[in-house]
Amino acid sequence: MNARKVPLEELPALEGAAWVDRTRRPYVEGGVAWVPVKNGYPADALLPERVRYAGRGYHLIGDIAVLHGLPATGDEVAAIVRHCHPRGVVRIAAYRGEKRVPEVEVLYGTTGETVHREQGYIFRLDPAKVMFAQGNRIEKARMAAVTEPGERVADMFAGIGYFTIPVAASGGFVHAMELNRTAFEYLQSNSIANHVEERVRAECGDSRTLLSGCYDRVIMGHFDAPAMLAAPLAHVRPGSVLHVHSIGSAEEAIRQSLAEAGLAGTIAARRIKKYAPGAWHMVQDVTIS
Fold this sequence. Notes:
Residues 58-289 form the SAM-dependent methyltransferase TRM5/TYW2-type domain. Keywords: Methyltransferase, S-adenosyl-L-methionine, Transferase, tRNA processing. By secondary structure, the chain is α/β, with parallel strands linked by helices. It folds into 3 domains: 2-46, no CATH class; 59-111, 2-Layer Sandwich (GMP Synthetase, Chain A, domain 3); 134-288, Rossmann fold (3-Layer(aba) Sandwich), CATH 3.40.50.150. 20% of the residues lie in helices and 35% in strands. The chain has 7 helices and 17 strands. The protein has helices at 74-84, 137-146, 164-169, 181-193, 207-210, 230-233, 251-260, and strands at 2-7, 27-29, 32-36, 45-46, 59-61, 64-68, 88-96, 101-109, 114-118, 121-125, 152-155, 173-178, 200-204, 217-220, 241-247, 265-276, 279-288. A 7-stranded mixed beta sheet has the order 13-12-11-14-15-17-16.
C-alpha cells in the first residue's frame, strides 16, 4: 500500500484531499497516521498489505486492548496480541454502580494508565479504573458539530471528558460534572492536555444537585438518563436541546417528564450502536419549544 506519513492531529484536515485513497483505512502508529495514497500520486512509503483481522472484536484504548461481554478464550486473546501487540488485554464484564466502576479481568500483560488519541484529542486514563465510551465516536463528533461557539453546555455525566473536550474545542462553555473521583481527576487533566481548560468548569459530585442557571444544551450520556430528566428540565429555556441517552426508545418517558415539568418539545431519536441482541443504544434529541 502506498502511503503518506501524516501527524495524527492533521488527519481531520485531509477530508476531501484528492490524493487520499478512501477505499482503504489509515494505519495509525503512535502519533503518526499512514494514509493510503491513490495511484498516480506521490507517497512516502510502500507498506506491506495488512492481513485482515477476523477475530473477536475489541477496542484499543491507548496500548491496552479492551474486550466486553463473554469470557475470552486463550486463542481469542492470542489472536488479539498478534494483531495489535498491546501492552495488555483486559475484559470488562460490566460497569458497576452509579460511579460506573469497571469490573475487570486482566487476560494478558499489564494494565494501568495509558494515553489514547482519538479524532485529534488526547485522553489519559486507566481503562481498568474508569469508563471510556470508545464506541460513541460518531456521537462525540456530532456533539462537537452541533455546538455553536458561546453555547452554555451541561455535560451531566462527563467521565474523563469524551464529550466535554470536543464540545469545548468547538467553542462551547462546558459545565462538566462527574461523580467518580478518579474519572473527575482525569477530566481535569485531559481538559488541560487538550488546551480547553478555560472553557471547562469541572465539578465532582451528583450532577442533579450541581446544575445551575440555564443551559443551551444538556448532554446526558448515561443509560439511566430518562429517569433523571426532572433535574435538567429545571435549567432549560425555549430552544434548549437535551441529548438523552438510553437503551431502547425512551420517547414515552421523555414526554411524561416534559409534561410533569410543564414543558413541550420535539423529540428526534437516533440509533448509536447495537448494545445487545434486540437492544440499541439510542440518543433522543429533545428540543424545548
